[in-house]
Amino acid sequence: MAKYQELDAVLVALADPTRRGVVRRLGEGPASVGDLAGAFPITLPSFLKHVRTLESAGLIRTAKTGRVRTCVLNRERLAVVEDWLAEQRSVWEQRTDRLERFVTEEE
How far is Cα of residue 80 from the mean position of the Cα atoms in its chain? Predict the structure, then answer.
């Protein structure tokens, strides 16, 4: 059950286009919150809510040095989604294989 709680948190975090944009940008490397926020037409307090959501889902880590908070993507957390998708793909491939056998054996 804990596995699905992690998956739920990651999927909720990725459900928003701003947060997906942040994840996409951080895939290129670490960035400060100020630099990340500049790419989106929202206020800094609103942007910080997105950062907190991503951080609480474990998708990013932040560290503060002086007055600058830097964000880093936690690529390992994306594995939760990859594993779930692989599991679903396997289930549906098995089902379509059974359907194919059923149809071809009936002919």
Answer: 9
- Give the total residue count for the chain: 107
Domain assignment present for 45: yes
Confidence check: pLDDT of 75 > 90: yes
Q: Give bridge partners of residue 61 from the DSSP assignment.
A: 72
Note down the domain range covering 66. Answer: 6-105
**How many domains is the chain partitioned into structurally?**
1
Say if residues 76 and 57 touch (Cβ distance below 8 Å).
Answer: no
Q: Is residue 26 part of a domain?
A: yes
Q: Please report the beta strands in the chain, taking only residues with DSSP state E, as ranges in sequence order.
A: 31-32, 60-65, 68-73
Confidence band, pLDDT 50/70/90 cuts, at residue 4: confident
φ, ψ dihedrals at 7, nearest 5°: -60, -45
Q: What CATH number is attached to the domain comprising 34?
A: 1.10.10.10
Residue 68: both structure tokens together? 């600058």
